[in-house]
């Protein structure tokens, strides 16, 4: 290992043991983030055709 490499800061990530529960609201928020960071066009769907988990 080179001297420059040993001086790099280390990042520690702690993950939960299991998967967190995804509520419909959280799922919609995550989907909105994914849509924002991608360049895939999203089609508009009339409100009456949207299946929303209450």
How much beta, percentage-wise? under 5%
**In angstroms, what separates the terminal alpha carbons?**
54 Å
Structural class: mainly alpha
Largest sheet: none
Can you describe what's shown?
The structure is a single chain. The chain is an all-alpha fold and 54 residues long. The longest helix is centred in the middle third of the chain and has 14 residues. The radius of gyration is 20 Å and the shape is elongated. The chain is 33% helix and 0% strand. It starts with a helix and ends in a 17-residue tail after the last helix. The mean pLDDT is 78.
List keywords for this structure.
54 residues, mainly alpha, elongated
Layout: helices, strands, pairs:
Elements: H1 3-6, H2 24-37
Short description:
The chain is an all-alpha fold and 54 residues long.
């Amino acid at each position: 290992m080179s001297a420059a490499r040993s001086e790099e800061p280390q990042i520690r990530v702690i993950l939960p043991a299991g998967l967190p529960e995804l509520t419909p609201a959280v799922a919609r928020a995550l989907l909105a983030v994914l849509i924002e960071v991608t360049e895939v066009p999203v089609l508009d769907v009339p409100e009456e055709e949207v299946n929303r988990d209450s």
